[in-house]
Amino acid sequence: MDGPGVGPGGQRPKDTDMSLEARVRELDHRHQSLKTIIAREERSPSADSLYLVELKRKKLRLKEELERVRESMRQAEPILQ
After folding, report:
1. Residue 24, class by beta-carbon neighbours within 10 Å (0-12 exposed, 13-18 middle, 19+ buried)?
2. pLDDT value at residue 17
3. Which of 3, 26, 59, 67 has the CB geometry, 3.0–4.6 Å to 34, for a possible disulfide?
4. Mean pLDDT value across the chain
5. Could you tell me the end-to-end alpha-carbon distance of the chain, in angstroms, rounded to an integer?
6. Over 80: is that where the pLDDT of 21 sits?
7. Average pLDDT over residues 15-42
8. CB under 8 Å, gap of 24 or more: what pairs does 27-31 form?
9. Which of 28, 8, 42, 35 is CA-nearest to residue 70?
10. CA torsion sign, 25 to 26 to 27 to 29?
């Protein structure tokens, strides 16, 4: 039985792989941007600790999502070969 996004023979379409790669790039870019903002805020003498906590939580959620997408890509690799 084929699942969603899986074509005949258990293969995922190439566009699915490209969309996952694009998602990884997007998440990584957002994660790096937050990392830069957090570093700047931490250097600021008037840093708002609640704002920093919020930014760090967002960064962690992005990292977790990034890992989920990468794991999904790793699991799909054997299907593609």
Report:
1. middle
2. 66
3. 59
4. 83
5. 19
6. yes
7. 91
8. 27/62, 27/65, 27/66, 27/69, 28/66, 30/62, 31/59, 31/62, 31/63, 31/66
9. 28
10. positive
Of 38, 18, 30, residue with least CA distance to 80: 18
Q: What are phi and psi of 12, to 5 degrees?
A: -85, 145
Q: Which residues contact 76 (CB under 8 A, 6 or more apart)?
A: 12, 16, 17, 20
Q: What is the pLDDT of residues 42-75, one digit of tens each?
A: 999 999 999 999 999 999 999 999 999 999 888 8
Q: What is the DSSP letter of 8?
A: G
**Are 23 and 65 contacting, i.e. CB atoms less than 8 angstroms apart?**
no
Q: 12 — alpha (psi -120 to 50), left (phi > 0) or beta?
A: beta
Phi then psi for residue 19, to 5 deg, are -70, -35
